[in-house]
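Lab manual, section 2.4: Encoding a predicted structure.

Procedure: take the sequence of the chain (379 residues), apply the prediction step described in section 2.3, and record the output as structure tokens. A sample record is shown.
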Amino acid sequence: MADAPATPNPIDDELDESDRGLFDLPDFGRLWRSFSGWCTANPLGVALLVVLFGMLGYYYFGLKLFQSHSQTPAAWIAAGWTSENDQQHCYAVVPLAILLGLMRWRDLEVAPQRPSNLGLWWLGAGVLALIAGVRCVEGRYTILALPLLCYGASRFLFGRRIARILLFPCVFLLFMLPLGGLVQGTANLQSQTATVVQGFCRIFGVGLRSEGDMLISTDNSFEPLEVAGGCSGIRSLMAMMMLAALYAYFAIRTPLRGFVLFSCSLVFALIGNFFRVFSVVLVAKFMGSHAAHVYHDWSGFVFFPVAVLAMVGVGNLLNRQWFPPLTRPPSAPASSPPVPAPEPSVPQTAPAVEDMAPLPPPTAAPAPKPDAPRPTYDY
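Recorded output:
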């Protein structure tokens, strides 16, 4: 069935508070009673939901489709969440997505439930992504299928309003994508990082020159340092993107400004990584190469504060009202001909009785004259 027409919402308009909802902890009792009522009224929908979750569970955890039929899709995905790729946070993506959906429980409780057949298109796209992942032996396609399947199921079973509420938690599942392969293509980014760190050292009077991705002391006070692929900032990009998405979802006023903040996540990651590498150079300069190697393993504590401060600063700038809101002037009423002002009335005093002349007696009306005889003519 087709959705009811919705009023267009400009992308940079203020979000309605009733649409954003209250981000508080869910009342599981009320949610369970509401869901139980829906299950009682829609047994066919419950059957479809059970079949969908059963098929997804069997596909991701039961079928061995990767690594010469030795790994399930779930095992292949989890194998990329290693400390080498700085993606241990990916284990928290699914619980966070569920929590984000539950925190909109007030909106989910009052939202109208109008099932829509348009959800079948999203479900079909998710199934095609699953098939492509098997045929191409690419596990990342199976991750791309999850948001499509979750959104399509919510749109088909519950309707557009509930699917819109759950849209961000569904898209949030994409942060499970492993990015280990991207580290191999960061040679240019490594040399750029070395060049920027060399500029920082010149500002602070530290003798350093960069040769490609190598940082060499001009006075040989420490051993040459190499900006490896993981030190280019690409490994921390996924964590920074996830943090920027959460901050934009909760704190930014409009969707367009939130998208701008999310687009700046790569810049935040690079800024934090520049300061991290620069701090490693300072430790090597003043404390020796051995201390720099030890500090390198803990330098992530320098990266995130700088990146988070940059993100909060940009978010503060985006949230400000730089220009007065554009409001239309009130329309003037239809013009009408001017009404002439009344002339001032001059008070008239009645004359005295003795000054009044007597009225003449009424005269009788003259009697009508008879008609004169008309002449006759003989022919």
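Check your result against the sample. The CA atoms of residues 119 and 156 lie 4 Å apart.
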